[in-house]
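Hey, quick one: can you model this chain's 3D structure?
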Amino acid sequence: MFTYALTLAYEGTDFAGYAKQTDPPQRTIQGALESALVTALHLPDDSLKTVVAGRTDAGVHAAGQVVSFSHPDLGPRLFGPDGTAPLLRSLNALTPPAISVRSLRAVPPDFSARFDALTREYRYYIAPGAQPPLFTRHFAWHVPGFAADPAHRAQLQQAAAALVGEHDFSSFAVTASLVDKNPVRTILSIEFVDAVFFGEPLIEIRIVGTAFLQSMVRVIVGTLAAIDAGRIAPDAMPEILAARLRASAGPTAPACGLTLFGVTYEQFNSYNS
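Sure thing. Here's the predicted structure for all 273 residues.
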């Protein structure tokens, strides 16, 4: 058996998240991708299993998701005589338009998209304009005036800085998801970046870490929004961390604003593929 890695992007608006769900059956990224793989490779249904870098929730998007799977040597299906990947073309023809398979490569036999990941970068987009955004309405959370005051921006950056490092992030995760799970995670950086898309202002909150708990990024963003709105004190982050209680943090930001931007490995960087 050989191991292969796919890099894919998707708009998660109309999907029930990445992970396949059968009870009841729902439209998921994993379901669509594995269906395309078994069709393209002429395999029996449900005979191929994928491993993913991070299972995104319903409505969350990806720009550089990484998925690995094992299969006998793909040979010319992987790289044709002209240097292209015939399987890559097939997968893009077989998956829904909201999924784009960007690259396909052979990796070491023991490679795991999940366990070999060094870092994961999420970007959360906030539309701070007075009017709801048009072009980014499926990709950004509309929070009028967010971080518009330079003093508030400085407070948010200081609050975010308290989360950098290794901490118990129980306060920032879905409580039920923490059963039998280590809540300690490491955040490497949190940045605020101003951007414009088709004339619409955006604020990108870029969060890089080694791994994340369920809804962790969205709760961090929701807490930052609550700080900006004056509902949580700017210096409360250390206390929220120490409490280890979900109720101590702010609300969960909407899924639409979150994108898994990329994953890094020793072999490659997913969003530069």
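One thing worth noting: The mean pLDDT is 93.
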